[in-house]
Amino acid sequence: SIIVFGSINIDLVATTSRLPVAGETLLGESFFTTPGGKGANQAVALAKLGIPTQMIGRVGNDNFGTELIKNLQISGVQTENILIDESVSSGVAVITVDNMGENHIIVIPGANGQVNQEDVKRLSDLLPTATTLLLQLEIPLTAVVAAAKAAKDLDINIILDPAPAQTNLPDELYPLIDIITPNEIEASQLVGFPVNGEETAAKAAAVLLERGVKCAVIKLGAKGVYCATAEAAFFIPAFSVHAVDTVAAGDAFNGGLAAALFHKLPLCEAVIWGAATGALSTTKPGAQSSLPDRITLEKFLTE
Ligand code: ADP
């Protein structure tokens, strides 16, 4: 199986004709909730592609937590190793968005911020059954590093999505990573110079390889993907689609990439699966609701 060790969130979205100023009460237009969190999104991407997927993380002891776990189960993700944390709320993003698309967002890590050594212990118990571990940076960095160490000891393939963007990752993390998958912003922050296309992506990939990762896959949005290992480097242009919403394109990419590697496809084929899954996710609104299933992906790849 593939294990995703990371964040589980719910977005609470209120739409209004304009954003309120401090102290103001406004009548809004609509309200909806939608599940997210980079960890949960990547787990759903994998499960929809038919991969046996275990999610490890935390939700709070509230209605959102129950809903988030149920949602993962409906998508086919195994949830027995998600802990219900009694001490805090579930991870939430409180989002206000106006008619122009302008927004205010408050992210409360809640249970995601509590992920620690205890969760790494549950991960360690499960790792012998796994081929691959997917990590992101929406839980405490100490837990991410500990998880990577536990997986490294068992020779499990480790894919790190260094998102949200951070400037300083611990030096010891890089050599533990098989594949790092930053987008342009995340790559820029990690290497300290702007990454905005194939040429700068090649420079950034060289820096990341130098720091010890085995493979750097740099996601360049609608431009495509750059991939480099010590042996080879290649660029794959993005699939041409009618994009309506790029939310979770990066998570979709990581799901597609890991799914292909699970099927033992070669790296360059796996990057194509990632790019196709990312592209398909942009053709529908929403995060998890936009992720393609295996039949849709296979059809898209053979067209
Ligand atoms: P993130 O969502 O992390 O910012 P990107 O925007 O780079 O990541 O998207 C991830 C991948 O999804 C891209 O590398 C590309 O393969 C695919 N993708 C994203 N946007 C588009 C688009 N508009 N058209 C086609 N493919 C896209």
Residue stretches low in confidence (pLDDT < 50, at least 5 long) are: none
Rounded average pLDDT: 97
| SSE succession | EEEHEHEEEHEHEEHHEEEHHH
Rounded to the nearest angstrom, the radius of gyration is: 19 Å
- CATH-scheme architecture of one domain: 3-Layer(aba) Sandwich
Strand content bin: 15-25%
Largest sheet: 9 strands, mixed
Question: Between the first and last Cα atoms, what is the distance in angstroms?
Answer: 29 Å
User: How would you describe the shape?
Assistant: globular
CATH class term of one domain: Alpha Beta
In DSSP terms (H or I, runs of 4 or more residues), the helix count works out at 9
The CATH topology of one domain comes to UDP-N-acetylmuramoyl-L-alanine:D-glutamate ligase
Oligomer: single chain
CATH level-four homologous superfamily name of one domain: Ribokinase
Ions, cofactors, ligands: which are bound? adenosine-5'-diphosphate
The beta-strand count equals 13
Strand pairing plus helix content: what structural class? alpha/beta
Widest sheet, order of strands: 5-4-1-8-9-10-11-12-13
Percent helix, as a range, is: 25-40%
Description:
With 303 residues, the protein is of the alpha/beta class. The chain has a domain at 2-7 and 37-84 and 112-160 and 239-302: Ribokinase (UDP-N-acetylmuramoyl-L-alanine:D-glutamate ligase, 3-Layer(aba) Sandwich). It contains nine helices and 13 strands. Strands 5-4-1-8-9-10-11-12-13 form a nine-stranded mixed beta sheet, sandwiched between helices. Strand 12 (224-229) and strand 13 (233-237) form a beta hairpin. Helix 1 (38-48) packs across helix 7 (249-262) and helix 7 (249-262) packs antiparallel against helix 8.
